[in-house]
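pasting Putative protease for the record, 618 residues
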Amino acid sequence: MKITSPVKSKEFVERIIKAGAGELFGGVIDPIWQNKYGKYIEFNRRGSYGKQGNCQSYQEIGEIIQIADDYGVEFDLTINALQMWEEQIPYVRSILEKYKKVGGRNVIVSDLSIIPIAREYDFNVIISSCANVYNTYIAQYLKLEGCSKIIFPRDISVQEMRNISETVPDMQYEMFMMNSGCRFQDGNCLGVHNTRFKELCSFCGKEGWDYHRLDGMELSSEEKQSAFIVSEQYRRLLKHACGQCMIYPMKNWIDSVKVLERTGSEERLIELIQLTNSNICLADESKDYVTYLEKMTFPEQSECKKHMSCYYRTDMFAFKNQWASFCAEHLKPGNEGSVDFVGINISTNKSNYEFKVYHKKRIVEEAEDLVSESPVILKLAKNNMLSNVTRIERIDEHHRICLDFNLRNRTNENMKDVFFLVQSMGDGIQEKLPLIKKLASLEINPESNFKYASLYYMGCVETEKDGISALKLHFLTRKCMNPDCIFQDYYYDDAYYLERLKTIDQFELHKCLDLIEEYVLAGNAHLWMIGCDFFSQDMGNIRGKYKIYIKNVNENVLKKIEELLMLQGLNANFVERLREVDKCVGSLKSMYLYGIGICYELKKGYSFNLYLKPKRCK
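structre below
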C-alpha cells in the first residue's frame, strides 16, 4: 500500500517523497484553455484555484517528473472534469500532447470518452473518483478499456471496495485517506470551486448561522452556546475526513491511499503523509486489527479520536466501545467466578449489539430468591422437575432479567404436564405444540419412558403487568445414558439430528441448517441444542424465533458463516459487522468462543448469538 500525494510546486517534491509518498498527482494551468473558457469551466476539478492548487506550467510538470523518476515515483496529471464537450476535445488533445512532450505517462480522467483519446497517446489511464465507480460492472468495463487504476469515490463503503477489488482483479485500486477540503463526493458536485458563485460545501459550512426557536421564544444563553458548538462542529466535520482506521483491514484490497491538501499548506500535507506512512508500517507489523487500532496514531483533530470524521463508517468502533463499556460494568475483576457465559447478539435488524451475562447455575433448592411464584414454576416444582436455575442479565435498553431452568425427571408422564402448561400460554403456542413435541422427541436416550426428554431447558421472562412475556424452549442434541446427567456418559450423533431436523417442516429451522449443516458434517463442530423463543406479541400467532446452536467450534467458524451469508446476498454491512466482531473476539485474552447460536426469525432474518466462556474453564 503506497501513498498518493498532490503536488503543485517542484520545490516540495523531494520532501513529499521522503515523507513517504509513493505516487504524485497534480493539475496544470493551461493558458490556451484559460483564454478560451476562463476559470468557470475546468478541465480538472481544481482548475479554478489557479496556482493555489496547480502547477504553473508544463515545464514545471516536466521537472517534477524528472525528480520523481529519480526516486522511482510516478506522476499523474488530472484531466478529470466531469464531462467534456465535443468542441473541447481538440483542447484536450493539445493538453495531452504538451504533457507527453515533458515526459508524462499517466493521466487521471472522469469522462469515459477521454479514455480512448488518452490511449492513443499511450498514456496509462487512471479513473478519477469523480467517475463514481460503485460496482463491479463498471469496474469490469474499465478494465476491458485498458485502464490501469480506479480511484474509489469518497462515499463508497468498505465492503463495496472489497467486493470490487476481489471480483475484478489485476487492476490497481485507490481509496481516500485524509482530506482537509470538502468531504462530499466530487462526481455528484455541480458547484464551481473558488468562485463568487461558491459550491454547496462552502455554503453549508459558512459561519454565522442564525438560530430561532420554533415557538418564537428568545433563545437562552445556554441554547445559543449549544447552537454555536453544534454549528462549529458541523463546519469542521464538513472539511475534515480521515480513513486511518481502515488501513489494516484494507491493506490486502487497496494498492494506494490518497492524502489530500491540494489547495492548502505543503507543511500540513507532509505531516499527513508522515502520519499515514507510520500507520501503514504499523499495519504491516500488526498481528490483527485490534492490535492495530490500539497502537495506531490518530490525527490531532478531536473529532477523529471520537470517530466522528470517518470516511468509512463501520460498526467496529461501536462494538469495541460497547464491549469495553460492558466489561467495565459487568465483568469487573473479582466477579469472573460468578459468570458461566457471556453472550453477544448480532442482529441484521439492529445496529447495536446486545450483551448477556449467564451467571453460574444454582440448584433450585438454594435459589429461592430467583424462583418466582408463577403457576408454571410452581407446577414444575411440584413434579420435582426443576434442577438448576441460571440467572441471565440482558444488557439492552430494557435491562431485563431472565431465568433458565434445567428440567429433570423428564418422564413421559411429567412431560404431559409440561406440554399442558405450554399450550395454556396462548392460542399461537397451542398451534405450535406439534412442532414442540417433534423437537422434544429427538432421541437422547433409548428408554421408552424418556420419549420427550430432549426438552431440557425452559426459560421464562415474567413481568408483574403481563405475566410471561417470553417463553424459551431448548432441546438437547446428544445421546445420554442418564437424561438427568447430560454431562456424563454421553456422545454426539450429529448426522442423526441433522437428518431429523430436515424432516421437520419449519422454514426458520431450515434457514439455520443452511449455514451449519456442511460445517458440522465436516467435523468442525458439534450440534449443541435447538431453541425456540415465543414472545408475548407472538402468543396469538404461530411464529417465533428459532435457533440451532453449535459448540466446540474452530476459529474459522464465523469466516465460513460469512461466506455463506454473502452467497445468500445478505446485507454486506451486516457481514462486515460480523467479521469485525470475529476479529475482536479472536483477540480476547481472558475468554474464548465456546459456541454459536444461529437464529432466524420471519420478517427480521438472521441473527447470531456468540457464547464466550472464561479461559479458566477451558
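The longest helix spans residues 266-285.
DSSP finds 22 helices and 22 strands in the chain.
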